[in-house]
Design goal:
The structure is a single chain. The chain is about 15% helix and about 45% strand. It is built from ten helices and 33 strands. The model is unreliable at about 5-20, about 170-185, about 205-210 and about 530-555 (pLDDT under 50). The protein is elongated and about 95 Å long. The strands form six sheets. The chain has a six-stranded antiparallel β-barrel. A six-stranded antiparallel β-barrel has the order 12-13-14-17-16-15. A five-stranded mixed sheet has the order 24-33-27-28-31. The longest helix has 16 residues, at about 340-355.
């Protein structure tokens, strides 16, 4: 099994830039078995060292139009480690001419044998590197309709990456890339945030907080691409292959193959090389800002030295039961597909690091997301357990609704959050619901008696008054009482959702039901439209009326619709859902 050699790690940091004259190039037809040469990489600190190699042959057309030069390397620690994750991009020279970048290796290899991406293929694949940042066009995912993303977010969840991307395999038959993340990021509950990406989360010691000798920004130097930076850092570390003016080419294979991107590019240092029977890797960390990564293709990544990347600012305040307050700052990769997941894992990681892991505790989340040209999206959620991942999924789902919309690229100006942890279990269950009569008159108020029960078993009866509108239809109606997330999942309102802009989504998010409120909803069947018994979502009423003549359309089907609601805010998580039938007169 081939393995793309990319070392992803945690850390933080800060310094310089240097580039050498481009060397001559040796293209694939001129490379022959038995040729010998030298490569450049960093094994320790920031010092660039050389290693030797012999060409074993050429693996032609391992993918359409893509070949590898097979080499056996020697020197440095390679006899003990084999080809190291983090050597990706290490330039290889024969007679002073660049032939390509180390890109792949094999797990459990007994010799340091690897594959080199030919330099001609690498430069051709990255030739559209632009001096300008990536265009801010919306991300279109044809199989993902806005109503589905919105309903998932309003239910407190997020669409998993595996569903967004479909089956993902590392190109060229390789294994999943290792993702060394310092701390508790290998906990099973974190898996949904990365499942579906060609990554394998694994525990590994990260670099420090910006210390160490920075590597020169020249071929063979170590660089890091920061997905998250600040008080928490996730970065992809690899090697520079080629420098031409301000343009720098690295890795010899993809990061995510996202095309145009805009990511912080830092110089990096290597703390150590960790030998492993399975797959050895460099323990690397960022040191200082160097520029911006602007292109991510199958043959490598490329960026501009000195350029300023755009990131999404995230601020997190932690109130740890009044005992301690923390203010954390992060900068996230700005990309519609990955920003929601990065925000979710950053929040989950912060809670995992600072919130206790056992005993009774409740977590409340409040804040807002600012999107240019729109009102702030209000964030409010509460969980009566120690599972911070539920809060993280809720945040990720709201962000997905914004970033995956098909109308315009959401310009997220900032995310501001506060999490309060209390050493008690703030959980309220809906234990019972009753009304004084089963028949209600149009234009009247219906008192709904709701029995609430806390975790200690204490009960309290509250009254929620529902106004029955004069427009209600005589006949049956359903009374639903429950928490916001359970009601959204029950889907009491079957009317078509008419979404035509990002502004529509913002209004829907700000008007969504919350899980720290109890709601009483009066639901009644109204004339609607269905197709073979299924409801039609996401289309305007005019289209529904046009479909009425279709022989497959059940035009007389009745749709459920919320005709009245009452709200009871509570300072706890609410759970439960009760339904009862009423007669409207």
């Amino acid at each position: 099994m081939r393995s793309l050699i990319l070392s992803l790690s945690l850390a933080l940091a800060a310094a310089p830039a240097f580039s050498s004259e481009p060397p001559g190039l040796m293209h694939l037809p001129d490379v022959k078995a038995g040729m010998k040469g030298t490569g450049r990489t960093v094994f320790q600190g920031g010092k660039i060292e050389t290693f030797n190699f012999e060409v074993l042959g050429v693996l032609r057309n391992v993918a359409p139009g893509h070949s590898y030069i097979l080499i056996r390397a020697s020197g440095g620690p390679l006899a003990q480690t084999g080809i190291l994750a983090g050597m990706s991009g290490s330039p290889c020279y024969i007679d002073g001419k660049l032939i390509g970048a180390v890109a792949i290796g094999w797990g459990f290899e007994k010799e340091p044998i690897g594959g080199v991406t030919p330099i001609g293929e690498m430069l051709e694949g990255l030739k559209d590197l632009s001096d300008a940042p990536a265009p801010r066009t919306p991300l279109i995912l044809p199989k993902l309709e806005p109503p589905k993303v919105l309903k998932t977010a309003l239910s407190g969840g997020m669409i998993p990456m595996s569903e967004l991307l479909g089956p993902q395999e590392v190109p060229n038959g390789g294994q999943m890339l290792p993702l060394p993340v310092y701390g508790a990021s290998t906990a099973p509950e974190f898996a949904p945030f990365w499942q579906g990406l060609p990554l394998r989360p694994m525990a590994a010691p990260g670099g420090g907080s910006g210390g160490g000798e920075p590597s020169p920004l020249e071929p063979g130097g170590m660089v890091a691409i920061n997905l998250v930076q600040g008080d928490f850092n996730i970065s992809a570390a690899g090697t520079i292959t080629y420098v031409s003016g301000k343009k720098v080419y690295c890795f010899g294979h993809q990061l995510y193959n996202l095309g145009p991107v805009d990511l912080p590019l830092w110089s990096a240092t290597v703390a150590a090389c960790l030998p492993s029977v399975n797959e050895s890797f460099k323990i690397a960390s960022p040191v200082a800002p160097a520029g911006a990564l602007r292109l991510d293709r199958a043959m490598g990544v490329a960026g501009l030295l000195g350029a300023e990347p755009r990131t999404v600012s995230m601020r997190l305040g932690l109130n740890l039961g009044g005992r301690r307050n923390l203010n954390l700052r992060f900068e996230l990769m700005d990309h519609p597909l990955l920003t929601p997941n990065l925000a979710a894992i950053t929040l989950a990681q912060a809670l995992s690091a600072h919130v206790k892991g056992q005993g009774f505790q409740s977590l409340s989340l409040q804040g807002n997301i600012k999107v240019a040209g729109h009102p702030p999206i209000e964030i409010e959620n509460m969980v009566a357990d120690l599972n911070g991942t539920r809060l993280a999924s809720y945040l990720g789902g709201v962000l997905q609704t914004l970033t995956l919309n098909p109308w315009e690229r959401a310009n997220i100006e900032g995310i501001s959050l506060t999490v309060k942890a209390e050493d008690r279990l703030d959980l309220t269950a809906i234990a019972g619901v009753r009304t004084l009569k089963a028949r209600v008159k149009r234009g009247s108020t219906l008192p709904v008696y709701v029995m609430l029960q806390n975790i200690q078993g204490s009960r309290e009866s509250v009254v929620m008054n529902l106004f029955v509108p004069p427009s209600a239809r005589p006949g049956k109606a359903t009374l639903l009482v429950g928490d916001g997330f359970s009601l959204v999942q029950a889907d009491p309102d079957e009317r078509a959702i008419d979404l035509s802009s990002l502004g529509d989504l913002v209004r829907m998010l700000n008007g969504g039901l919350k899980n720290n409120h109890a709601y009483a909803l009066l639901v009644q069947a109204q004339p609607g439209a269905g197709l073979r018994g299924s409801r039609i979502e996401g289309i305007p009423p005019t289209v529904v009326s046009m479909l009425g003549a279709d022989g497959d359309l059940n035009a007389n089907r009745l749709q459920r619709q919320i005709i009245s609601r009452a709200v009871l805010p509570l300072e706890s998580e609410v759970r439960g859902l009760t339904a009862m039938e009423l007669e409207v007169e």
